[in-house]
Amino acid sequence: MSHKLNLDHLDLQIIQSMMENAEISYADLGKRLSVSGGTIHVRIKKLQEFGVVKGTRLAVDMRSLGYDVIAFVGIYLEKSSLYESVANDIKQIPEVIRLNYTTGNYSMFVEIVCKDIIQLKHVLHEQLQNIKGIDRTETLISLEESFRRNPIVYRPN
């Protein structure tokens, strides 16, 4: 889109509220923010069109579903120009839930969620290590996720 998006306090309040509880109805959110549900609807639509809001997701405790291993893998590329092709190959591995292009020691950093250590070994040795352009990897296994939260985009004065 060619025009610039200017977010005002109401937009930021809507974003913050919906990050805390995406199930809230537009009518209830409107009451809380002293505007109509229709206004909330229009603002959400605008935020979606500009790509600020990218749908809603269900927060799930993966361990309660039997996914007991969370690992972070630092990836060293043979050369940085291979990032895009390697990223596309990594995207095909369903156990990889997050990929970041990074500064520092690693070229890339991924988060992997597996049911057990055997599945993690398979992902690392049979899938990740076979991607053309990856020089080597370093794996860190998470012992516990103490907390996870969204950033605060709006703080009332």
Give a description of the structure.
By secondary structure, this protein is an alpha+beta fold. 33% of the residues lie in helices and 20% in strands. Strands 2-3-1-4 form a four-stranded antiparallel beta sheet. A hairpin with a 6-residue loop joins strand 2 (96-101) and strand 3 (108-114).
Structure described in brief:
The protein has about 160 residues and is α+β, with helices and mostly antiparallel strands. It folds into 2 domains: about 40 residues, Arc Repressor Mutant, subunit A; about 80 residues, 2-Layer Sandwich (Alpha-Beta Plaits). Strands 2-3-1-4 form a 4-stranded antiparallel β-sheet.
CATH topology of the largest domain: Alpha-Beta Plaits
The largest β sheet comes out as: 4 strands, antiparallel
Strand order of the largest sheet: 2-3-1-4
What amount of the residues lies in strands? Answer: 15-25%
In the CATH scheme, the class of the largest domain would be: Alpha Beta
- Give average pLDDT, whole number: 92
Parts with pLDDT < 50 across at least 5 consecutive residues: none
Give the topology string: H per helix, E per strand: HHHEHEEHE
Judged by helices, strands and strand pairing, the structural class is: alpha+beta
Tally the structural domains. Answer: 2
* Percent helix: 25-40%
The termini sit apart by 32 Å
> Radius of gyration over alpha carbons?
20 Å
The dominant shape is: elongated
